[in-house]
């Protein structure tokens, strides 16, 4: 007698997970796995992330808490870090990268929310070598009131992180009044540089001037070692702006810091700056770090938007 039992059915195929087909594609109607992508803002402790349109994240940025998502275009350039180098004698940890460099590129990241709303947000910068490899990632630490009440004159702390997500440099500026058109003693800006954190290696101080900006670079003993001279900024619109790095006796120029002109449309849309620093390869590594700090101070003093756009509309 034949059995009337139904024939065995094949088990259903195994799927990679909810919201995905067996080929790995998202199924319409399902949200799939939601992944936040970007580098977290260390300053606030909140999970704020950089826009994907401004920072292509790859697996070598995982040390910053970034996760690679399927939505990242396959053609996005990877974030490549500068390889570690032998540590020179008496070099603070994390500064050995600078010993091999005679050029530094500092690119401020575009902040999408700042461009849309007009409200100031914490600045973030990519510090690279001449080949475009990342050396540090710089993050400003601040609060919303200080950001939007005092604008470019605000006090700030900027930490520079290496490829292992360790802070190796800290830049700090206190608030000084800005009641005068030409900087006087009470309005002069000063930047303190620490490397590693907790160890002061020098200062960048603004000097009194009428038309052309003047700065002095000091070591940890507050001894003057270099000077920084800028042009009359009112005469250099729509072009690159060069700040000359001079010896303390001003007899020779040993390098320069250039603020790159991005074009009329980009300059009107955002105050994000791009800098190129050039100095001798054999310059002391601490002095290179101080000049790097001077680059950030120049950005805040001269190239940050003076009045937030949302204040102008009210």
TrEMBL record:
Spans annotated as Disordered:
1-22
* Stored InterPro entries: Scramblase
User: Keywords assigned by UniProt?
Assistant: Calcium, Lipoprotein, Membrane, Palmitate, Phosphoprotein, Transmembrane, Transmembrane helix
Identify the Pfam families for this entry: Scramblase
Specify the domain of life of the species encoding this protein: Eukaryota
For the keyword Ribonucleoprotein, the answer is: no
- One GO MF term attached to the UniProt entry: phospholipid scramblase activity
By sequence similarity, the record places it as follows: Belongs to the phospholipid scramblase family.
Name of the featured protein: Phospholipid scramblase
């Amino acid at each position: 007698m034949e059995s009337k039992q139904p024939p065995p059915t094949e088990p259903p195929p195994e799927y990679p997970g909810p919201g995905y087909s067996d080929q790995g594609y998202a199924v319409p109607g399902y949200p799939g796995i939601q992944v936040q992508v970007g580098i977290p803002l260390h300053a606030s402790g909140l999970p704020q992330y950089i826009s994907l349109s401004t920072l292509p994240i790859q697996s070598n940025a995982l040390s910053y808490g970034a996760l690679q998502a399927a939505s990242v275009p396959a053609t996005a350039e990877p974030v490549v870090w500068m390889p570690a180098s032998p540590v020179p004698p008496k070099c603070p940890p994390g500064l050995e990268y600078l010993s091999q460099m005679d050029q530094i590129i500092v690119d401020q990241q575009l902040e999408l929310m700042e461009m849309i709303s007009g409200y100031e947000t914490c600045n973030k910068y990519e510090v690279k070598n001449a080949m475009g490899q990342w050396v540090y990632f710089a993050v400003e630490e601040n609060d919303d009131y200080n950001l939007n009440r005092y604008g470019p004159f605000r006090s700030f702390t900027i930490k520079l992180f290496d490829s292992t997500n360790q802070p190796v440099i800290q830049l700090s500026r206190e608030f000084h009044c800005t009641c005068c058109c030409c900087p006087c003693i009470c309005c002069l800006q000063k930047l303190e540089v620490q490397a590693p954190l907790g160890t002061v290696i020098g200062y960048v101080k603004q000097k009194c001037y009428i038309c052309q900006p003047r700065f002095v670079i000091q070591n940890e003993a507050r001894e003057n070692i270099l000077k920084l001279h800028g042009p009359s900024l009112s005469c250099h619109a729509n072009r690159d702006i060069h700040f000359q790095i001079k010896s303390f006796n001003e007899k020779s120029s040993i390098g320069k810091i250039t603020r790159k002109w991005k074009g009329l449309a980009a300059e009107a849309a955002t105050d994000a700056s791009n800098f190129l620093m050039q100095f001798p390869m054999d310059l002391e590594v601490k002095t290179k770090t101080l000049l790097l700090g001077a680059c950030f101070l120049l950005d805040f003093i001269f190239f940050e938007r003076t009045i937030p756009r949302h204040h102008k509309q009210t």
